[in-house]
Write a structure and sequence with these properties.
The chain has about 300 residues and is of the alpha/beta class. It is built from nine helices and twelve strands. The N terminus is likely disordered. The structure holds zinc ion (ZN) (2 copies).
Length: about 300
């Protein structure tokens, strides 16, 4: 536990708008942000703004979106959604509570129905500390009004959308969204393509839990499915397998160091093999990933 303050200090030193794509695009003024539309199938899209990737299902029964980015992106997002049929989605799913995936609830929740895991609602009512500050509680209209403990299925526009909770990974309220017919899966922040992930220990996240969840998903997701990650480009099952190996192998190096009685500073200065260099070039740098793993496996 002695190491905990160091962990939070280093997170607190990171910029406040750290939930970007890891390419510094989030440092631009909000008016510079553009929402990019990536067509996946005839009625499923991925939108990319400043925060987490957004999934969209279109059709005559109304739009369903998965996550809704930062509040500063809402106008641009609304415009991009209008192009796809309507500026006001009928349903909004939140993969987890973080602001880069839910702040748009403050706009889209006025007209749409928000659906999320029980713990997402809990944390938006009483947000925990994150990166050295505590977000303001969300007003009632920006909260999920339909919540579930394990899963929920939504039938809309001829599509079957299966929403499944995966226990303690990135947080303790993560859901994976399966668009069954379109063969598209939105993995939220359980998947950072090619990069070390953020695991929010203060929100019930756990590195081993994340590893287990990703392993289970690799067994579940069809080989030819298109994967929308929380952050990064549209991906495939083989990208998810590579990411799983990256997380497992790098976490094992930290665990081996811990078993050998090394301090966190010794583990950091030993570092990782060259092949993991690129993985530490995103939002979560190598040293921060080592701290997250160290803290996660130190916790009882
Ligand atoms: Zn995120
Ligand atoms: Zn997140």
């Amino acid at each position: 536990m002695r190491k905990l303050p160091i962990f939070f200090l280093s997170l607190a030193l990171a910029p406040l708008t750290v939930f970007g794509h890891g390419d510094n695009s989030h440092f631009h003024a909000s008016q510079d942000i553009n929402v990019r539309t990536v067509k996946i199938t005839d009625n499923v899209y991925m939108l990319q703004g400043r925060g987490g990737n957004i999934g969209v299902l279109t059709g005559p029964e109304g739009l369903l979106i998965v996550d809704d980015d930062y509040r500063t992106v809402s106008e641009k997002l609304s415009t991009a959604l209008k192009e796809l049929g309507s500026p006001t989605p009928r349903f909004i799913l939140n993969t987890h509570w973080h602001g880069d995936h839910t702040e748009g609830n403050n706009v889209f929740g006025k007209t749409g129905t928000i659906i999320a895991h029980d713990n997402v609602r809990k944390r938006l009512i009483d947000p925990p500390m994150i990166f050295g500050s505590r977000p303001a509680p969300y007003p009632a209209f920006a909260l999920p009004i339909l919540t579930y403990a394990e899963s929920i299925t939504i039938h809309l526009n001829g599509e079957e959308i299966k929403v499944v909770h995966y226990p303690s990974g990135h947080t303790d309220g993560d859901s994976i969204i399966f668009f069954k017919k379109a063969n598209v899966v939105h993995l939220g922040d359980d998947f950072f393509v090619g990069r070390f992930p953020f695991v929010d220990l203060a929100s019930g996240g756990n590195v081993q839990g994340l590893i287990n969840n990703v392993a289970a998903l690799i067994q579940t997701i069809p080989a030819d499915a298109k994967l929308i990650p929380g952050h990064g480009p549209l991906a495939s099952l083989s990208d998810l397998k590579e990411y799983h190996s990256l997380v497992v192998e790098s976490a094992k190096i930290v665990q081996d160091g811990m078993k050998a009685g090394k301090t966190i500073d010794e583990i950091k200065s030993a570092g990782f093999p060259e092949k993991f260099k690129e993985a530490g070039s995103g939002f979560i740098k190598t040293d921060m990933w080592i701290e997250i793993v160290y803290q996660s496996y130190s916790a009882k």
